[in-house]
Specification:
With 390 residues, the protein is α/β, with parallel strands linked by helices. The chain folds into 2 domains: 159 residues, 3-Layer(bba) Sandwich (FAD/NAD(P)-binding domain), CATH 3.50.50.60; 158 residues, 2-Layer Sandwich (D-Amino Acid Oxidase, Chain A, domain 2), CATH 3.30.9.30. The strands form 4 sheets. The protein has a 7-stranded mixed sheet with strand order 6-5-14-15-16-13-17, covered by helices on one side. A 5-stranded parallel sheet has the order 8-2-1-12-18, sandwiched between helices. Strand 1, helix 1 and strand 2 form a beta-alpha-beta unit. The longest helix is centred in the C-terminal third of the chain and has 30 residues. The protein is globular. The relative contact order is 0.18. The model has no long low-confidence stretch (mean pLDDT 93).
Length: 390
């Protein structure tokens, strides 16, 4: 019997699952509600644990054509005057420690690279899922236009508002975190020299921070800012903000940073939502992946990475036990839940570290930064290999 696998969601996690499944010899179909596969969220950091899996998927050379290899990572700067609190020299140490470099990339470029490993006939656009019946055999997906699909395995890669998560774990709404995120891009030609460096730079200060790095082979500079949300509760990557709103969040900060913000295009803004970790992802032949399973704050830059790791582990578990998919999915979640839960937790607490008000606690933090080597300390993140873990 051929295993019928349905993936809900055509983002990075859903397409990575399809790519790894096809690599393992398993056919699947991706159902995406949008009429085209696009990514809006600008840039992301591809640490060694991401690069390792892109190489294994056979897309690394294509990826590096669009990415930027970082020489400096986690460069923390003080909000008021840009004093460098700590930084990582990634030039040789990253590959020596983990066998791969750290890169930055536009999300759309990464999506296209992964999509190149998914047969076009395996992608169905314009399919908005309205419900999932997990109690029968086979499982049944219902779409908004009245169509239905039967499957032996359903993978919910449909984001933080996942229909599959609702069916598996209940429909409790995500909580507002009290923080919001701004994102903006600007042409590298308009950016000052310090922002064009192959570096991931974080300016940290009371209640907020801003990170910037080059993407799109160095042609663009990506800006991401985390600030208090106030009464803002719109959770959409297409929600627009103004430069004046973003500048107001960083009034009084180093003039070099505010000049960089002024050079950016109109930013997007959305509220950061929060969900506690789940202790179970699967029920019978249905499971979760990526943000549907483990949404996390962006403070470690591991959201997309963990979705790609999920995809690699899930494909291997199903390939090794295709005649008992429910058992394969239990193996998948046993492998992944402890790691993703830990990342959710450390990402959750990081805002308190980055956003300390000036004072004795902030001074102790800055002194601690000077003595830390995040590249080594985060080895449990960057050194992970799904093939060794499963």
């Amino acid at each position: 019997m051929t295993l019928r696998i349905a993936i809900l969601g055509g983002g990075i996690g859903g397409l990575a699952a399809a790519a790894f499944l096809h690599r393992a010899g398993l056919s699947c179909t991706v159902y995406e509600q949008a009429s085209a596969l696009t990514e809006i969220g600008a840039g992301l950091v591809a640490a060694p644990n991401t690069a390792r899996l892109l190489r294994r998927l056979g897309v690394f050379e294509q990826f590096r054509e669009h990415a930027v290899r970082l020489d400096v990572g986690w460069e923390f700067r003080r909000w008021q005057d840009g004093t460098v609190l700590s930084s990582e020299d990634l030039t040789t140490a990253c590959e020596r420690l983990y066998g791969e470099h750290t890169w930055t990339v536009h999300r759309a470029d990464l999506l296209n690279v992964i999509r190149s490993r998914v047969p076009s006939e395996s992608i169905r656009l314009g399919h908005r899922c309205a419900g999932v019946d997990l109690d029968g055999s086979p499982l049944r997906l219902r779409f908004a236009d009245g169509r239905t699909v039967e499957a032996d395995v359903v993978i919910g890669a449909d984001g933080i508002h996942s229909v599959v998560r609702g069916a598996l774990a209940g429909s409790a709404a995500a909580a507002y975190s009290g923080m919001c995120s701004f994102r903006a891009l600007l042409p590298a030609a308009k950016a000052p020299a310090f922002a064009r460096r192959p570096a991931q730079t974080l300016w940290i200060g009371p209640g907020r921070h801003l990170v910037h790095y080059p993407v799109s082979a160095g042609r663009l500079i990506n800006l991401v800012a985390i600030a208090p949300a106030g009464g803002y509760t719109v959770e959409s990557w297409t929600a627009a903000a103004t430069l004046e709103e973003l500048l107001a969040e960083f009034g009084g900060w180093d003039a070099r940073l505010t000049a960089l913000i002024r050079a950016a295009d109109a930013p997007a803004r959305w509220a950061l939502l929060d969900r506690p970790p789940l202790t179970r992802w699967s029920h019978g032949g249905a499971t979760l992946l990526g943000d549907a399973a483990h949404p996390m704050f962006p403070f470690y830059g591991q959201g997309a990475a963990q979705a790609i790791e999920d995809a690699a582990v899930l494909a291997r578990c199903l390939a090794e036990n295709p005649h008992n998919p429910s058992q394969a999915l239990l193996g998948y979640e046993r492998s992944r839940i402890p790691r993703t839960t830990m990342l959710q937790q450390v990402s959750h607490t990081r805002s308190g570290v980055n956003h300390l008000p000036d004072g004795p606690e902030q001074q102790r933090r800055d002194q601690a930064f000077a003595g830390q080597d995040p590249l080594v300390a985060n080895g449990w993140i960057y050194g992970y290999d799904p093939d060794s873990d499963v």
